[in-house]
Write a structure and sequence with these properties.
TIM Barrel; Spore Coat Polysaccharide Biosynthesis Protein SpsA, Chain A; 587 residues; elongated; eight-stranded parallel β-barrel; 3 domains; alpha/beta; Type Iii Antifreeze Protein Isoform Hplc 12
Length: 587
Protein backbone atom coordinates (compact mmCIF):
# COMPACT_ATOMS: atom_id res chain seq x y z
CA UNK A 1 0.00 0.00 0.00
CA UNK A 2 1.03 3.63 -0.38
CA UNK A 3 2.59 4.85 2.88
CA UNK A 4 1.45 8.31 3.89
CA UNK A 5 4.04 11.01 4.61
CA UNK A 6 3.19 10.72 8.29
CA UNK A 7 2.88 7.07 9.20
CA UNK A 8 -0.09 6.25 11.41
CA UNK A 9 0.46 3.34 13.79
CA UNK A 10 -2.50 1.68 15.48
CA UNK A 11 -1.37 0.69 18.99
CA UNK A 12 -3.38 -2.36 20.07
CA UNK A 13 -1.54 -2.70 23.40
CA UNK A 14 -3.72 -4.67 25.85
CA UNK A 15 -7.09 -3.68 24.37
CA UNK A 16 -7.55 -7.36 23.50
CA UNK A 17 -7.92 -8.22 27.24
CA UNK A 18 -5.91 -11.41 26.63
CA UNK A 19 -8.41 -12.59 23.97
CA UNK A 20 -6.60 -13.51 20.75
CA UNK A 21 -9.76 -13.34 18.62
CA UNK A 22 -10.36 -9.81 19.85
CA UNK A 23 -6.76 -8.91 19.05
CA UNK A 24 -7.23 -10.11 15.47
CA UNK A 25 -10.52 -8.19 15.16
CA UNK A 26 -8.95 -4.93 16.41
CA UNK A 27 -5.97 -5.34 14.08
CA UNK A 28 -8.09 -5.91 10.97
CA UNK A 29 -10.47 -3.04 11.75
CA UNK A 30 -7.49 -0.71 12.35
CA UNK A 31 -6.03 -1.60 8.97
CA UNK A 32 -9.40 -1.09 7.28
CA UNK A 33 -9.61 2.32 8.97
CA UNK A 34 -6.43 3.39 7.22
CA UNK A 35 -3.59 2.54 9.62
CA UNK A 36 -0.21 2.24 7.95
CA UNK A 37 0.96 -0.13 10.66
CA UNK A 38 -0.41 -2.05 13.61
CA UNK A 39 1.52 -2.70 16.79
CA UNK A 40 1.22 -5.41 19.41
CA UNK A 41 2.83 -5.56 22.83
CA UNK A 42 4.66 -8.86 23.13
CA UNK A 43 5.67 -9.74 26.68
CA UNK A 44 5.67 -12.32 29.41
CA UNK A 45 5.01 -11.47 33.04
CA UNK A 46 8.55 -12.58 33.86
CA UNK A 47 9.91 -10.15 31.26
CA UNK A 48 8.25 -7.26 33.05
CA UNK A 49 8.14 -7.91 36.75
CA UNK A 50 9.50 -9.73 39.72
CA UNK A 51 7.07 -12.43 40.82
CA UNK A 52 6.21 -10.51 44.01
CA UNK A 53 5.05 -7.43 42.08
CA UNK A 54 1.41 -6.65 42.80
CA UNK A 55 0.54 -6.73 39.07
CA UNK A 56 2.44 -9.91 38.21
CA UNK A 57 -0.67 -12.10 37.98
CA UNK A 58 -2.52 -9.41 36.00
CA UNK A 59 0.13 -9.39 33.26
CA UNK A 60 0.49 -13.16 33.39
CA UNK A 61 -3.20 -13.55 32.56
CA UNK A 62 -3.15 -10.97 29.74
CA UNK A 63 -0.03 -12.22 27.96
CA UNK A 64 -0.30 -14.50 24.92
CA UNK A 65 1.45 -17.86 24.53
CA UNK A 66 3.44 -18.75 21.43
CA UNK A 67 0.49 -20.78 20.11
CA UNK A 68 -1.72 -17.68 20.53
CA UNK A 69 0.77 -15.59 18.58
CA UNK A 70 0.90 -18.28 15.84
CA UNK A 71 -2.83 -17.84 15.31
CA UNK A 72 -2.73 -14.02 15.48
CA UNK A 73 0.09 -13.64 12.97
CA UNK A 74 -1.47 -16.29 10.73
CA UNK A 75 -4.70 -14.28 10.61
CA UNK A 76 -3.03 -10.99 9.60
CA UNK A 77 -0.23 -12.22 7.35
CA UNK A 78 -1.98 -11.01 4.16
CA UNK A 79 -3.04 -7.65 5.52
CA UNK A 80 -1.69 -4.56 3.77
CA UNK A 81 -0.02 -2.95 6.75
CA UNK A 82 3.26 -3.15 8.56
CA UNK A 83 3.39 -5.13 11.78
CA UNK A 84 5.39 -3.78 14.72
CA UNK A 85 5.85 -5.24 18.19
CA UNK A 86 6.89 -3.86 21.56
CA UNK A 87 9.46 -6.19 23.11
CA UNK A 88 9.79 -6.21 26.90
CA UNK A 89 12.47 -8.83 27.49
CA UNK A 90 14.46 -11.78 26.27
CA UNK A 91 11.55 -14.26 26.44
CA UNK A 92 9.31 -12.16 24.23
CA UNK A 93 12.21 -11.45 21.87
CA UNK A 94 12.72 -15.18 21.35
CA UNK A 95 9.01 -15.64 20.61
CA UNK A 96 9.06 -12.75 18.10
CA UNK A 97 11.72 -14.46 16.00
CA UNK A 98 9.06 -16.85 14.65
CA UNK A 99 7.17 -14.14 12.76
CA UNK A 100 7.51 -11.54 10.02
CA UNK A 101 7.94 -8.31 11.95
CA UNK A 102 8.72 -4.98 10.33
CA UNK A 103 10.00 -3.09 13.38
CA UNK A 104 10.62 -3.49 17.08
CA UNK A 105 9.80 -0.97 19.77
CA UNK A 106 11.90 -0.58 22.91
CA UNK A 107 10.07 0.71 25.97
CA UNK A 108 11.68 3.44 28.09
CA UNK A 109 12.22 0.96 30.93
CA UNK A 110 14.59 -1.07 28.73
CA UNK A 111 16.74 1.79 27.44
CA UNK A 112 19.62 0.58 29.60
CA UNK A 113 18.91 -3.13 29.02
CA UNK A 114 22.12 -3.72 27.07
CA UNK A 115 21.60 -7.43 26.19
CA UNK A 116 18.09 -6.75 24.82
CA UNK A 117 19.22 -3.67 22.86
CA UNK A 118 22.01 -5.68 21.24
CA UNK A 119 19.65 -8.46 20.14
CA UNK A 120 17.08 -6.09 18.66
CA UNK A 121 19.75 -4.07 16.85
CA UNK A 122 21.22 -7.20 15.26
CA UNK A 123 17.86 -8.13 13.65
CA UNK A 124 18.36 -5.43 11.03
CA UNK A 125 14.76 -4.30 11.54
CA UNK A 126 13.72 -0.71 12.16
CA UNK A 127 13.65 0.28 15.82
CA UNK A 128 11.13 2.49 17.62
CA UNK A 129 12.21 3.99 20.95
CA UNK A 130 9.74 5.12 23.61
CA UNK A 131 11.07 8.12 25.52
CA UNK A 132 8.40 8.81 28.16
CA UNK A 133 10.11 9.21 31.51
CA UNK A 134 13.60 8.87 30.01
CA UNK A 135 16.45 11.30 30.48
CA UNK A 136 18.35 12.54 27.46
CA UNK A 137 21.37 10.67 28.77
CA UNK A 138 19.47 7.36 28.81
CA UNK A 139 18.26 7.94 25.26
CA UNK A 140 21.77 8.73 24.12
CA UNK A 141 23.11 5.64 25.86
CA UNK A 142 20.57 3.38 24.13
CA UNK A 143 21.37 4.92 20.73
CA UNK A 144 25.07 4.26 21.25
CA UNK A 145 24.40 0.59 22.01
CA UNK A 146 22.00 0.21 19.07
CA UNK A 147 24.30 1.93 16.58
CA UNK A 148 27.24 -0.20 17.69
CA UNK A 149 25.35 -3.39 16.78
CA UNK A 150 22.95 -2.32 14.00
CA UNK A 151 23.13 -2.16 10.22
CA UNK A 152 23.56 1.12 8.39
CA UNK A 153 20.12 1.02 6.72
CA UNK A 154 18.13 0.54 9.93
CA UNK A 155 15.79 3.39 10.78
CA UNK A 156 15.47 4.51 14.37
CA UNK A 157 12.34 6.43 15.35
CA UNK A 158 12.30 8.27 18.65
CA UNK A 159 8.78 8.65 20.07
CA UNK A 160 7.74 11.36 22.48
CA UNK A 161 4.92 10.73 24.95
CA UNK A 162 4.16 8.93 28.19
CA UNK A 163 1.15 7.17 29.67
CA UNK A 164 -0.47 8.69 32.78
CA UNK A 165 -3.86 6.98 32.23
CA UNK A 166 -4.55 9.36 30.60
CA UNK A 167 -1.86 12.00 30.10
CA UNK A 168 -2.90 15.59 30.76
CA UNK A 169 -2.90 18.02 27.85
CA UNK A 170 -0.59 20.48 29.62
CA UNK A 171 1.90 17.71 30.41
CA UNK A 172 2.38 16.73 26.78
CA UNK A 173 5.40 19.09 26.40
CA UNK A 174 5.65 19.09 22.62
CA UNK A 175 8.68 21.36 22.74
CA UNK A 176 10.75 18.43 23.91
CA UNK A 177 10.60 17.31 20.28
CA UNK A 178 12.73 20.37 19.47
CA UNK A 179 15.41 19.18 21.84
CA UNK A 180 15.20 15.64 20.47
CA UNK A 181 15.83 17.03 17.00
CA UNK A 182 18.71 19.16 18.26
CA UNK A 183 20.38 16.29 20.10
CA UNK A 184 19.54 13.26 18.00
CA UNK A 185 18.21 14.60 14.68
CA UNK A 186 21.18 13.22 12.75
CA UNK A 187 20.46 9.72 14.08
CA UNK A 188 16.69 9.38 14.33
CA UNK A 189 13.33 10.31 12.90
CA UNK A 190 10.70 11.62 15.29
CA UNK A 191 7.26 10.40 16.28
CA UNK A 192 4.57 11.12 18.85
CA UNK A 193 2.43 8.87 21.07
CA UNK A 194 0.35 11.40 22.99
CA UNK A 195 -1.87 9.27 25.33
CA UNK A 196 -4.49 12.03 25.74
CA UNK A 197 -7.91 10.72 26.82
CA UNK A 198 -9.59 9.12 23.82
CA UNK A 199 -12.85 11.00 24.37
CA UNK A 200 -11.04 14.35 24.51
CA UNK A 201 -10.97 16.34 21.28
CA UNK A 202 -7.31 17.05 21.80
CA UNK A 203 -6.43 13.40 21.42
CA UNK A 204 -6.76 14.17 17.72
CA UNK A 205 -5.46 17.74 17.80
CA UNK A 206 -2.19 17.17 19.63
CA UNK A 207 -0.59 14.92 16.98
CA UNK A 208 -1.44 17.54 14.35
CA UNK A 209 0.10 20.29 16.43
CA UNK A 210 3.27 18.19 16.51
CA UNK A 211 3.69 18.25 12.75
CA UNK A 212 5.85 21.43 12.77
CA UNK A 213 8.21 19.57 15.10
CA UNK A 214 9.33 17.26 12.25
CA UNK A 215 7.41 14.18 13.30
CA UNK A 216 7.08 11.41 10.73
CA UNK A 217 5.14 8.91 12.85
CA UNK A 218 1.99 9.05 14.99
CA UNK A 219 1.05 6.24 17.34
CA UNK A 220 -2.55 6.06 18.61
CA UNK A 221 -4.12 3.60 21.04
CA UNK A 222 -7.28 2.00 19.63
CA UNK A 223 -10.12 -0.14 20.96
CA UNK A 224 -13.45 -1.54 19.85
CA UNK A 225 -15.62 0.04 22.53
CA UNK A 226 -14.45 2.68 25.02
CA UNK A 227 -17.62 2.31 27.08
CA UNK A 228 -16.53 -1.17 28.16
CA UNK A 229 -13.53 0.48 29.89
CA UNK A 230 -11.15 -2.34 29.11
CA UNK A 231 -7.41 -2.28 29.66
CA UNK A 232 -5.73 0.74 28.00
CA UNK A 233 -9.09 2.32 27.15
CA UNK A 234 -8.08 5.65 28.74
CA UNK A 235 -6.20 6.97 25.73
CA UNK A 236 -7.79 4.76 23.08
CA UNK A 237 -9.86 5.87 20.10
CA UNK A 238 -12.81 3.89 18.82
CA UNK A 239 -12.56 2.93 15.15
CA UNK A 240 -15.12 5.54 14.08
CA UNK A 241 -12.91 8.28 15.60
CA UNK A 242 -9.59 6.98 14.31
CA UNK A 243 -9.17 9.66 11.62
CA UNK A 244 -11.28 12.40 13.11
CA UNK A 245 -10.02 15.91 13.46
CA UNK A 246 -11.49 18.85 15.40
CA UNK A 247 -9.79 22.18 15.80
CA UNK A 248 -9.44 23.73 19.24
CA UNK A 249 -6.20 25.55 18.66
CA UNK A 250 -6.29 27.91 21.63
CA UNK A 251 -6.68 25.10 24.09
CA UNK A 252 -3.87 23.26 22.30
CA UNK A 253 -1.43 26.04 23.17
CA UNK A 254 -1.31 24.76 26.73
CA UNK A 255 0.33 21.59 25.44
CA UNK A 256 3.53 23.20 24.19
CA UNK A 257 5.55 23.13 27.43
CA UNK A 258 9.34 23.06 27.37
CA UNK A 259 11.79 20.32 26.57
CA UNK A 260 13.18 20.10 30.11
CA UNK A 261 9.85 20.09 31.95
CA UNK A 262 9.34 16.74 33.66
CA UNK A 263 6.02 16.93 35.53
CA UNK A 264 5.66 15.12 38.82
CA UNK A 265 3.39 12.55 37.19
CA UNK A 266 6.10 11.70 34.67
CA UNK A 267 8.70 11.49 37.44
CA UNK A 268 6.30 9.18 39.28
CA UNK A 269 5.84 7.18 36.07
CA UNK A 270 9.61 6.90 35.76
CA UNK A 271 9.94 5.65 39.34
CA UNK A 272 7.05 3.22 38.91
CA UNK A 273 7.99 1.53 35.64
CA UNK A 274 11.78 1.91 35.39
CA UNK A 275 13.42 -1.50 35.44
CA UNK A 276 16.27 -2.42 37.74
CA UNK A 277 19.13 -4.88 37.58
CA UNK A 278 18.47 -8.12 39.48
CA UNK A 279 20.42 -11.33 39.88
CA UNK A 280 19.26 -13.81 37.25
CA UNK A 281 20.62 -16.64 39.40
CA UNK A 282 22.46 -17.15 42.66
CA UNK A 283 25.79 -15.31 42.49
CA UNK A 284 28.35 -16.64 44.99
CA UNK A 285 30.82 -14.42 46.82
CA UNK A 286 33.99 -13.98 44.77
CA UNK A 287 32.20 -14.27 41.40
CA UNK A 288 32.78 -11.77 38.61
CA UNK A 289 29.40 -10.64 37.28
CA UNK A 290 28.69 -11.40 33.62
CA UNK A 291 25.70 -10.51 31.43
CA UNK A 292 24.06 -13.90 31.97
CA UNK A 293 24.02 -13.21 35.72
CA UNK A 294 21.77 -10.17 35.23
CA UNK A 295 18.18 -9.46 34.32
CA UNK A 296 16.21 -6.21 34.24
CA UNK A 297 12.83 -6.18 35.98
CA UNK A 298 10.52 -3.85 37.82
CA UNK A 299 9.86 -4.14 41.52
CA UNK A 300 7.87 -2.27 44.17
CA UNK A 301 10.78 -1.15 46.34
CA UNK A 302 12.22 2.35 46.59
CA UNK A 303 15.76 1.07 46.01
CA UNK A 304 17.23 2.57 42.86
CA UNK A 305 19.11 0.57 40.26
CA UNK A 306 22.80 0.65 39.56
CA UNK A 307 23.81 1.30 35.98
CA UNK A 308 24.96 -1.58 33.81
CA UNK A 309 28.53 -0.28 33.75
CA UNK A 310 28.62 -0.18 37.54
CA UNK A 311 27.92 -3.91 37.72
CA UNK A 312 29.36 -5.76 34.75
CA UNK A 313 32.73 -7.47 35.26
CA UNK A 314 32.78 -6.54 38.96
CA UNK A 315 33.76 -9.05 41.65
CA UNK A 316 31.19 -9.46 44.42
CA UNK A 317 32.20 -9.56 48.09
CA UNK A 318 29.00 -11.20 49.32
CA UNK A 319 26.53 -13.80 48.11
CA UNK A 320 23.69 -12.45 45.99
CA UNK A 321 20.52 -14.52 45.80
CA UNK A 322 18.51 -14.99 42.64
CA UNK A 323 15.94 -12.18 42.13
CA UNK A 324 17.83 -9.95 44.57
CA UNK A 325 18.44 -6.40 43.39
CA UNK A 326 22.11 -5.71 42.75
CA UNK A 327 23.38 -3.28 45.38
CA UNK A 328 26.60 -1.32 45.66
CA UNK A 329 27.27 -3.02 48.98
CA UNK A 330 28.09 -6.16 46.99
CA UNK A 331 31.33 -4.58 45.71
CA UNK A 332 34.54 -3.23 47.15
CA UNK A 333 34.84 0.56 47.25
CA UNK A 334 37.60 3.05 47.99
CA UNK A 335 36.33 6.06 49.94
CA UNK A 336 38.40 9.22 49.63
CA UNK A 337 37.71 12.08 52.03
CA UNK A 338 38.44 15.41 50.33
CA UNK A 339 38.75 18.56 52.43
CA UNK A 340 38.38 21.78 50.44
CA UNK A 341 39.57 24.98 52.10
CA UNK A 342 41.42 28.24 51.45
CA UNK A 343 42.54 31.23 53.52
CA UNK A 344 40.66 33.99 51.76
CA UNK A 345 37.14 34.70 52.98
CA UNK A 346 35.04 37.81 52.56
CA UNK A 347 33.25 37.34 55.91
CA UNK A 348 35.88 35.65 58.10
CA UNK A 349 39.44 35.94 56.74
CA UNK A 350 41.93 33.23 57.80
CA UNK A 351 39.18 31.22 59.46
CA UNK A 352 41.09 28.00 58.80
CA UNK A 353 43.85 29.10 61.20
CA UNK A 354 41.67 30.70 63.87
CA UNK A 355 42.03 28.84 67.18
CA UNK A 356 39.23 26.53 68.25
CA UNK A 357 39.69 25.32 71.84
CA UNK A 358 43.38 26.13 71.49
CA UNK A 359 44.11 24.73 68.03
CA UNK A 360 43.53 25.95 64.49
CA UNK A 361 40.07 25.14 63.15
CA UNK A 362 41.58 23.21 60.25
CA UNK A 363 43.51 21.00 62.67
CA UNK A 364 40.27 20.32 64.57
CA UNK A 365 38.65 19.22 61.32
CA UNK A 366 41.50 16.87 60.44
CA UNK A 367 41.53 15.41 63.96
CA UNK A 368 37.85 14.56 63.53
CA UNK A 369 38.45 13.15 60.08
CA UNK A 370 41.39 11.12 61.35
CA UNK A 371 39.00 9.27 63.67
CA UNK A 372 36.99 8.12 60.64
CA UNK A 373 40.22 7.01 58.97
CA UNK A 374 41.36 4.97 61.97
CA UNK A 375 37.93 3.32 62.22
CA UNK A 376 38.12 2.42 58.49
CA UNK A 377 35.03 4.46 57.68
CA UNK A 378 37.11 6.06 54.92
CA UNK A 379 40.26 4.84 53.17
CA UNK A 380 42.27 7.98 52.46
CA UNK A 381 42.25 11.74 53.03
CA UNK A 382 43.17 14.48 50.57
CA UNK A 383 43.40 18.23 51.07
CA UNK A 384 42.64 20.57 48.17
CA UNK A 385 43.56 24.22 48.35
CA UNK A 386 44.66 26.92 45.92
CA UNK A 387 48.06 27.84 44.54
CA UNK A 388 47.86 31.26 46.20
CA UNK A 389 50.66 32.10 48.65
CA UNK A 390 48.18 32.77 51.47
CA UNK A 391 47.37 29.06 51.48
CA UNK A 392 50.96 27.98 52.18
CA UNK A 393 50.11 28.30 55.89
CA UNK A 394 47.38 25.69 55.52
CA UNK A 395 49.80 23.18 54.07
CA UNK A 396 52.13 23.78 57.01
CA UNK A 397 49.28 23.25 59.48
CA UNK A 398 48.38 19.76 58.30
CA UNK A 399 51.85 18.45 57.46
CA UNK A 400 51.78 15.86 60.26
CA UNK A 401 48.49 14.28 59.17
CA UNK A 402 48.28 11.27 56.81
CA UNK A 403 46.97 13.33 53.93
CA UNK A 404 47.87 14.01 50.31
CA UNK A 405 47.86 17.68 49.31
CA UNK A 406 46.71 19.04 45.95
CA UNK A 407 46.77 22.67 44.88
CA UNK A 408 45.00 24.20 41.94
CA UNK A 409 42.52 26.61 40.43
CA UNK A 410 41.07 29.35 42.65
CA UNK A 411 37.58 29.53 41.14
CA UNK A 412 37.08 26.09 39.60
CA UNK A 413 36.81 24.09 42.82
CA UNK A 414 35.90 20.83 41.06
CA UNK A 415 38.99 21.04 38.86
CA UNK A 416 41.04 21.45 42.03
CA UNK A 417 39.31 18.43 43.59
CA UNK A 418 39.84 16.36 40.47
CA UNK A 419 43.58 16.32 41.09
CA UNK A 420 42.83 14.34 44.24
CA UNK A 421 40.40 11.78 42.89
CA UNK A 422 42.17 11.29 39.57
CA UNK A 423 45.45 10.66 41.41
CA UNK A 424 44.06 8.33 44.08
CA UNK A 425 44.15 4.74 42.88
CA UNK A 426 40.73 3.02 42.86
CA UNK A 427 38.92 5.96 44.47
CA UNK A 428 35.25 5.72 43.45
CA UNK A 429 33.43 7.31 46.41
CA UNK A 430 34.16 10.85 47.59
CA UNK A 431 33.39 12.20 51.05
CA UNK A 432 33.27 15.95 50.38
CA UNK A 433 34.06 18.20 53.36
CA UNK A 434 34.37 21.96 53.26
CA UNK A 435 36.73 23.83 55.55
CA UNK A 436 33.71 25.56 57.09
CA UNK A 437 32.33 22.29 58.47
CA UNK A 438 34.85 21.31 61.11
CA UNK A 439 32.50 19.39 63.43
CA UNK A 440 31.85 16.41 61.16
CA UNK A 441 30.67 13.36 63.06
CA UNK A 442 32.62 10.09 62.45
CA UNK A 443 29.60 7.95 63.30
CA UNK A 444 27.55 9.78 60.70
CA UNK A 445 30.39 9.44 58.20
CA UNK A 446 29.97 5.69 58.52
CA UNK A 447 26.18 5.94 58.33
CA UNK A 448 26.07 8.15 55.25
CA UNK A 449 28.55 6.03 53.31
CA UNK A 450 26.60 2.88 54.16
CA UNK A 451 23.28 4.53 53.26
CA UNK A 452 24.76 5.76 49.99
CA UNK A 453 25.91 2.28 49.00
CA UNK A 454 22.84 0.41 50.26
CA UNK A 455 20.51 2.63 48.23
CA UNK A 456 22.60 2.67 45.03
CA UNK A 457 22.87 6.46 45.10
CA UNK A 458 25.09 8.79 43.10
CA UNK A 459 24.88 11.60 45.65
CA UNK A 460 23.84 11.61 49.30
CA UNK A 461 23.60 14.54 51.69
CA UNK A 462 23.06 14.70 55.44
CA UNK A 463 21.31 18.05 55.50
CA UNK A 464 19.03 17.00 58.34
CA UNK A 465 22.06 17.27 60.63
CA UNK A 466 23.03 20.68 62.03
CA UNK A 467 24.99 22.74 59.49
CA UNK A 468 28.70 22.38 60.12
CA UNK A 469 28.44 18.72 61.15
CA UNK A 470 27.33 17.21 57.85
CA UNK A 471 29.19 15.83 54.83
CA UNK A 472 28.25 14.83 51.29
CA UNK A 473 28.97 11.53 49.55
CA UNK A 474 29.43 11.63 45.79
CA UNK A 475 30.43 9.02 43.25
CA UNK A 476 33.59 9.86 41.34
CA UNK A 477 31.66 9.13 38.14
CA UNK A 478 29.31 12.03 38.99
CA UNK A 479 32.16 14.46 39.51
CA UNK A 480 33.81 13.26 36.32
CA UNK A 481 30.58 13.86 34.41
CA UNK A 482 30.19 17.39 35.79
CA UNK A 483 33.83 18.23 35.11
CA UNK A 484 33.63 17.08 31.50
CA UNK A 485 30.05 18.05 30.64
CA UNK A 486 29.43 21.28 32.54
CA UNK A 487 28.57 24.29 30.41
CA UNK A 488 30.06 26.56 33.09
CA UNK A 489 32.45 24.80 35.54
CA UNK A 490 33.52 28.08 37.18
CA UNK A 491 30.59 27.86 39.59
CA UNK A 492 31.59 24.53 41.12
CA UNK A 493 32.22 26.19 44.47
CA UNK A 494 28.48 25.46 44.62
CA UNK A 495 28.98 21.87 43.48
CA UNK A 496 25.81 20.54 45.06
CA UNK A 497 23.70 22.63 42.68
CA UNK A 498 25.25 20.94 39.67
CA UNK A 499 23.92 17.68 41.05
CA UNK A 500 20.49 18.49 42.47
CA UNK A 501 19.57 20.62 39.45
CA UNK A 502 20.22 17.59 37.25
CA UNK A 503 18.12 15.18 39.30
CA UNK A 504 17.00 13.17 36.28
CA UNK A 505 20.61 12.29 35.53
CA UNK A 506 21.79 11.51 39.06
CA UNK A 507 20.34 9.25 41.76
CA UNK A 508 20.03 11.57 44.74
CA UNK A 509 19.20 10.80 48.36
CA UNK A 510 19.33 12.22 51.87
CA UNK A 511 20.46 10.37 54.97
CA UNK A 512 17.56 9.90 57.43
CA UNK A 513 18.45 11.49 60.77
CA UNK A 514 16.62 10.78 64.04
CA UNK A 515 14.74 13.68 65.62
CA UNK A 516 17.20 13.94 68.49
CA UNK A 517 19.92 14.96 66.01
CA UNK A 518 17.76 16.76 63.49
CA UNK A 519 18.45 20.22 64.87
CA UNK A 520 18.69 23.64 63.24
CA UNK A 521 21.84 24.72 65.08
CA UNK A 522 24.09 26.84 62.90
CA UNK A 523 27.61 25.38 63.34
CA UNK A 524 29.22 26.25 60.04
CA UNK A 525 32.28 28.52 60.31
CA UNK A 526 31.54 31.56 58.17
CA UNK A 527 31.31 34.65 60.39
CA UNK A 528 32.71 36.01 63.66
CA UNK A 529 29.50 35.05 65.47
CA UNK A 530 29.80 31.52 64.09
CA UNK A 531 33.39 31.36 65.29
CA UNK A 532 32.52 32.49 68.80
CA UNK A 533 29.78 29.88 69.13
CA UNK A 534 31.87 27.02 67.77
CA UNK A 535 34.82 27.97 69.97
CA UNK A 536 32.56 28.03 73.02
CA UNK A 537 31.12 24.63 72.13
CA UNK A 538 34.51 23.03 71.50
CA UNK A 539 35.98 24.53 74.68
CA UNK A 540 33.09 23.01 76.65
CA UNK A 541 33.72 19.66 74.98
CA UNK A 542 37.44 19.90 75.73
CA UNK A 543 36.76 20.72 79.38
CA UNK A 544 34.63 17.59 79.51
CA UNK A 545 37.56 15.55 78.16
CA UNK A 546 35.97 15.21 74.72
CA UNK A 547 38.12 17.56 72.70
CA UNK A 548 37.92 15.41 69.57
CA UNK A 549 36.10 12.23 70.66
CA UNK A 550 32.61 13.68 70.88
CA UNK A 551 29.34 12.67 69.26
CA UNK A 552 26.16 14.36 68.11
CA UNK A 553 24.67 13.48 71.49
CA UNK A 554 27.36 15.60 73.13
CA UNK A 555 26.61 18.56 70.87
CA UNK A 556 22.90 18.28 71.65
CA UNK A 557 23.71 18.10 75.36
CA UNK A 558 25.67 21.37 75.11
CA UNK A 559 22.70 23.19 73.59
CA UNK A 560 20.29 21.61 76.05
CA UNK A 561 22.41 23.02 78.87
CA UNK A 562 23.02 26.33 77.09
CA UNK A 563 19.78 27.03 75.18
CA UNK A 564 20.70 30.68 74.65
CA UNK A 565 23.82 29.72 72.68
CA UNK A 566 21.93 28.64 69.57
CA UNK A 567 20.38 32.10 69.30
CA UNK A 568 23.67 33.98 69.00
CA UNK A 569 24.13 33.41 65.28
CA UNK A 570 20.53 32.73 64.31
CA UNK A 571 20.18 36.03 62.46
CA UNK A 572 23.05 35.31 60.06
CA UNK A 573 21.85 34.95 56.50
CA UNK A 574 23.57 32.29 54.43
CA UNK A 575 25.31 33.66 51.36
CA UNK A 576 23.10 33.54 48.28
CA UNK A 577 24.23 31.49 45.31
CA UNK A 578 25.23 33.72 42.37
CA UNK A 579 22.89 33.75 39.40
CA UNK A 580 25.61 34.26 36.80
CA UNK A 581 26.51 30.62 36.19
CA UNK A 582 24.71 27.69 34.60
CA UNK A 583 24.53 24.21 36.13
CA UNK A 584 23.39 22.62 32.86
CA UNK A 585 25.32 19.63 31.58
CA UNK A 586 25.99 18.84 27.96
CA UNK A 587 24.74 15.51 26.64
Amino acid sequence: MQIKKTEIIAEIANAHQGNRELAIKIAKQAINSGANAIKFQMYTADDLLVSTHNRYEHFKKQSFSKSDWDIIFGAIKNCEAKVYVDIFGLDSFRISQNYKIDAYKVHFSDLTNVPLLKLIAKTGKDILIGSGGASFQEINYSLEIIRAHSKSNQKIILFHGFQAYPTKINETNLERLIKFDELFGDQVQLGISDHIAGDNLFSKIIPMMALPYKIKFVEKHITINRHQKGTDYYSSLEMSDFKSFIDFFRLAESSLGTYDNYPSSEINYRKTVKKKWFANKNIPKGSVIQEEDLVMKRDDSSTLSLDYDQIINKEVIEDIAKDEIIKNTAFNHHVLGIVVARSKSSRLPDKAVKPIAGEASLIHLFKRLEISLKKNYIDEIAFCTTTEKDDDQLIELIKDFPVNVYRGDVDNVLKRMSKAFYNTSNADIILRITGDDILIDPDYVQKIVQYHLSNNLDYTDAKALPSGTEVEVINVSVLDTILKKSENPEGTEYLTNYIVENELLFKIGSLPVPDKHNKDYRLTLDTEDDYNLINELCTWLSNNKKKYEYTMDDIVEFFDKHPEAAKRNKSIVQRKIPLNFSTKLKI
